[in-house]
């Protein structure tokens, strides 16, 4: 669905470079305030950092140790905002913190959890409490006590896609597989050259937002031929997916001897996700992969806590990403600030706003801060609006459970597993996917794992899908169960079909 702008340059208010969470968040916020917005992403939406997170909407309990109280307060408040905006992809989760006396003392953990409970707004999520473990639990016998608190889980890649959809629904032009080749200031505007499936073309914009994530500094140096105001530290975080380690919907937050923490998080009903790591990364951010040392590290932390022991043979899948953190000259990768820094540079009345750092949880607040910085250049900019606006699929929706029941009632032949997957992936937009169809037989052939042709066509038409990985790892997580033959069939389908897009979907420039 990558669509480049027309040959005749169009002038936008804002051009956004980068289709990760910060780029699409800014695009959505700006479009909703009345600006015309163009966003380009050189790969797929959420291709890199934004799909390689621990998939949490959380305050960041460990950030309290580094005295990042503003960041934690802002992130804590955002949990319930995002729960209300996207109840289909965000869900509450309880986190169990086993206490190991030789690490952080109990009083310190209790004090931290007290702050965590009261630092930010909390109306729906229950508070923390102490726990005692018995011999029937999944933890090792020597771990006798612990604590429990609340945070939220999110499908990170879908959070990105939904913000892009919201921006498009409000009029933004979102193009994927299209990279920014150059940008320069000319007579009070930016002239931006992009290259995509339709070749090289130009647009003009009054303002430019550099939300290139790991490439934010290199974009300034190489594409803009300017000096970057800040350095970037690339911190690699890797995760492994293993068979389910324990029963229950709770996650575990495990303290390691090096004072880092590792999560064990329920994943897709039958797996456990274990991660993340923190290590400096020096290579190409597009080529980051888990190392043997990282695999051993996360398995070692899990084996120090759980009765069920893991080996490399248990690793079913891995994923890695780099967090582009603003360089604060910290010697410890875990201590580098996760806060964001916005840099505004203005010449000839044409602003450049560059985004350094940030975290998934606070993307919406980052976007509001970006709008505040750009306000002087757009005096008719509308008011903030995103706090109470549902994301696509969150409209007219109560709970995923209720939507699952409604789907089973209205669509004949639907299995509970598929109904649940649709409800927790598309929310109320599932009715757009279905159209007039009310039986599974009308959805076309099954490519694999209950993925019907109709769903693929929906993803092509509405969610910028062009390749198998877009479907299998970012729009869904069916890559874990697809066979090589099924993947080849999906690639073939995508190569030979591209349904016509509506004007609302394409927003042709």
Descriptors:
3 domains; Helicase, Ruva Protein, domain 3; FAD/NAD(P)-binding domain; 509 residues; 14 helices; D-Amino Acid Oxidase, Chain A, domain 2; single chain; eight-stranded mixed beta sheet; ten-stranded mixed beta sheet; flavoprotein; alpha+beta
Tell me about this structure.
The chain is globular, with a radius of gyration of 23 Å. Strands 3, 4, 5, 6, 11, 12, 13, 14, 15 and 16 form a 10-stranded mixed β-sheet that branches. Strands 1, 2, 7, 8, 9, 10, 17 and 18 form an 8-stranded mixed β-sheet that branches. It has a two-stranded antiparallel sheet with strand order 19-20. The chain has 14 helices and 20 strands. The chain folds into 3 domains: 11-49 and 158-230 and 337-388, FAD/NAD(P)-binding domain, CATH 3.50.50; 83-153 and 233-327, D-Amino Acid Oxidase, Chain A, domain 2; 400-498, Alpha-glycerophosphate oxidase, cap domain (Helicase, Ruva Protein, domain 3). By secondary structure, the protein is of the alpha+beta class. α1 packs parallel to α4, α1 packs across α7 (363-374) and α8 crosses α9 (416-426). β19 and β20 form a beta hairpin.
């Amino acid at each position: 669905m990558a669509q480049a702008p027309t040959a005749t340059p169009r002038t936008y208010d804002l051009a956004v470079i980068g289709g990760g969470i910060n780029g699409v968040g800014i695009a959505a916020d700006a479009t909703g305030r009345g600006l015309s917005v163009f966003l380009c992403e050189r790969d797929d939406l959420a291709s890199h950092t934004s799909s390689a997170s621990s998939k949490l909407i959380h305050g960041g309990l460990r950030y309290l140790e580094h005295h990042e109280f503003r960041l934690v307060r802002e992130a804590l408040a955002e949990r319930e905002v995002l729960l209300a905006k996207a109840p289909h992809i965000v869900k509450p989760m309880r986190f169990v913190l086993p206490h190991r006396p030789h690490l952080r003392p109990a009083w310190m953990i209790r004090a931290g959890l007290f702050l965590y409970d009261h630092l930010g707004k909390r109306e729906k999520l229950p508070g923390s409490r102490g726990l005692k473990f018995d011999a029937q639990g999944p933890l090792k016998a020597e771990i006798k006590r612990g604590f429990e608190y609340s945070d939220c889980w999110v499908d990170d890649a879908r959070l990105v896609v939904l913000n892009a959809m919201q921006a498009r629904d409000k009029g933004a032009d979102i193009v994927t597989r299209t990279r920014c080749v150059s940008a320069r200031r000319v007579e009070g505007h930016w002239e931006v050259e992009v290259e995509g499936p339709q070749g090289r073309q130009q647009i003009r914009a009054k303002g430019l937002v550099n939300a290139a994530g790991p490439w934010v500094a290199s974009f300034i140096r190489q594409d803009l031929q300017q000096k970057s105001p800040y350095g970037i530290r690339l911190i690699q975080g890797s995760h492994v997916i293993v068979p389910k380690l324990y029963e229950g919907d709770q996650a575990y937050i495990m303290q390691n001897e090096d004072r880092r923490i590792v999560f064990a998080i329920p994943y897709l009903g039958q797996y456990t996700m274990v991660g993340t790591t923190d290590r400096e990364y020096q290579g190409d951010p597009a080529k980051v992969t888990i190392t043997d040392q990282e695999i051993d590290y996360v398995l070692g932390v899990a084996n120090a806590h759980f009765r069920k022991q893991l080996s490399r043979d248990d690793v079913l899948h891995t994923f890695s990403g780099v967090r582009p953190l603003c360089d604060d000259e910290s010697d410890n990768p875990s201590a580098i600030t996760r806060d964001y820094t916005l840099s505004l540079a203005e010449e000839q009345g044409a602003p450049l706003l560059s985004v350094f750092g940030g975290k998934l949880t606070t993307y919406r607040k980052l976007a509001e801060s970006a709008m505040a910085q750009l306000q002087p250049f757009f005096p008719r900019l509308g008011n903030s609006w995103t706090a109470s606006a549902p994301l696509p699929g969150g409209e007219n929706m109560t709970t995923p459970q209720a939507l699952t029941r409604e789907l089973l009632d209205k669509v004949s032949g639907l299995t509970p597993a598929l109904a649940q997957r649709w409800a927790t992936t598309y929310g109320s937009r599932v009715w757009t996917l279905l159209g007039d169809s009310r039986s599974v037989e009308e959805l076309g052939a099954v490519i694999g794992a209950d993925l019907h042709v109709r769903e693929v066509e929906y993803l092509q038409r509405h969610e910028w899908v062009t390749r198998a990985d877009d479907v299998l790892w970012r729009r869904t997580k069916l890559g874990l169960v697809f066979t090589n033959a099924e993947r080849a069939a999906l690639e073939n389908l995508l190569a030979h079909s591209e349904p016509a897009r509506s004007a609302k979907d394409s927003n042709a420039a």
